[in-house]
């Protein structure tokens, strides 16, 4: 289902991405449209699946999860479970079940998967890789990249440009 977003939709989405705790009344005042329009547009975008969820973005540092790592993984396509070849997607889904994992992406190129994890320290990252990740059937090899510093990390989508509000 295709849906064309107008400037009001984009303004509402920009405000929600910036602060999802804003009330419809606050949004209506910021973008100078009736509150009923805000309610109707948000409801429609929720029903269409444009707005998937509302959630808090937690501080990893304040929760003592200061160590981040990206892990590249290669899948062994010759591995079998019960006579059936293991797929890239099946390995990705199994990896996604670990609590340390924040993201799993099926990718193209020399590697098959890109995984992002958070842990308390480097030792915990190592334990995760050795004791959990490398035990997954069908995983051939991994390459772990430790994050030294995060310059940008966002959940905002690039198409939703912050509107100039009067």
Please render the helix and strand layout as text.
Layout: H1 7-18, H2 24-31, H3 35-47, E1 67-75, E2 80-81, E3 84-85, H4 88-95, E4 101-106, E5 113-119, H5 122-132, E6 139-146
Question: Would you mind describing this structure in some detail?
Answer:
The chain has 166 residues and is of the alpha+beta class. The protein folds into 2 domains: 7-47, Arc Repressor Mutant, subunit A (Orthogonal Bundle), CATH 1.10.10; 67-146, 2-Layer Sandwich (Alpha-Beta Plaits), CATH 3.30.70. Helices cover 31% and strands 20% of the residues. The protein is built from 5 helices and 6 strands; from the N terminus they run αααβββαββαβ. It has helices at 7-18, 24-31, 35-47, 88-95, 122-132, and strands at 67-75, 80-81, 84-85, 101-106, 113-119, 139-146. It has a 4-stranded antiparallel sheet. Strands 2-3 form a two-stranded antiparallel ribbon. Helix 1 packs across helix 3 (35-47) and helix 2 crosses helix 3 (35-47). The protein is elongated, with a radius of gyration of 21 Å.
């Amino acid at each position: 289902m295709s849906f064309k977003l107008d400037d009001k939709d984009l303004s509402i989405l920009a405000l929600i991405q910036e602060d999802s705790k804003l009330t419809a009344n606050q949004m209506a005042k910021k973008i100078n449209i009736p509150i009923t329009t805000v309610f109707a547009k948000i409801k429609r975008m929720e029903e269409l699946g444009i707005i998937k969820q509302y959630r808090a973005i937690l501080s990893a540092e304040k929760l003592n999860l200061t160590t981040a790592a990206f892990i590249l993984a290669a899948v062994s396509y010759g591995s079998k479970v019960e006579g059936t070849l293991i797929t890239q997607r099946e390995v990705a889904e199994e990896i996604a079940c670990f609590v340390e994992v924040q993201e799993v992406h099926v990718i193209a190129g020399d590697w098959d998967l890109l995984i992002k994890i958070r842990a308390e320290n480097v030792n915990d990252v190592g334990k995760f890789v050795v004791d959990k990740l490398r035990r997954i059937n069908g995983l051939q090899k991994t390459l772990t990249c430790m994050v030294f510093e995060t310059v940008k990390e966002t959940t905002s989508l690039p198409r939703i440009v912050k509107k100039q509000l009067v």
